[in-house]
Amino acid sequence: MVKIKGRYPWRMGATSFVIPAGIEENVSYLADKVDDIQLLFFESPSQCHMPQQVDVHLLQGLAQEHDLSYTVHLPSDIQPGSSDEGVRQLAVAEIIRLMDDLAPLNPLCYDMHLALQLELAMEQWLANIDDFLGQLRKALGRERAVVAIENIDYPFSSVRPLVQEHGFALCADIGHGLLYGEDQNALFADIAKAAHIHYHGVRGGRDHQALGAEQQACSNRLGHVLHSAGFTGVVTLEVYRSEDLRASLQHIEECWIHYQQQKR
Prior knowledge:
single chain; globular; TIM Barrel; 42% helix; alpha/beta
């Protein structure tokens, strides 16, 4: 596998599930290969039948030994757009609890989905999201700047103004943008100011695939935007198999070499 630690102006990251093992084993496997690891928490602690226990002390040690940073994927089973105020409050509590538990790791970013409530009219859902973001802003204070709202399976233009109004960051997921037909100019405009970027291939109507020839033009554009914007944050290759990570890292390296040659 291509080892790219310190190779690019930005930090290149992988997810904490590229081998079939727990978070600690994945971090140990990846620590000397990438700059950042996205710790995946798809289930909220109170709803998980087998809570994911993480050895924070071990992860701290690996970070110090390997010049490693962490980002965090917050639980995606919470319902921030629910019309039930208690459910929205529970979502805030779950986020705060997990952020407190992981605070010793000094994560650079916490990514969050604002999932649609399909049974609600858009106007009502947006009002609920507005209330949720207001509650979370009050609970976090300045720390909200490291919580980034991710574009998922609906036009991000519907929530972007609320995200910015409440002072949260942006997480630009390019793979989601490609799969769901997001306006490419708007998506790449977000990249320049995003706190965190996710990148993965789209193939056969599925995302989170290895990057390949299909993404060549997109990768070239991404490299140009990142370099022009002076981006120094994290670009996470959001794939879940070691062979997909290997192929994606090779793809990025080839694109970077080509970009450097064009600049000469």
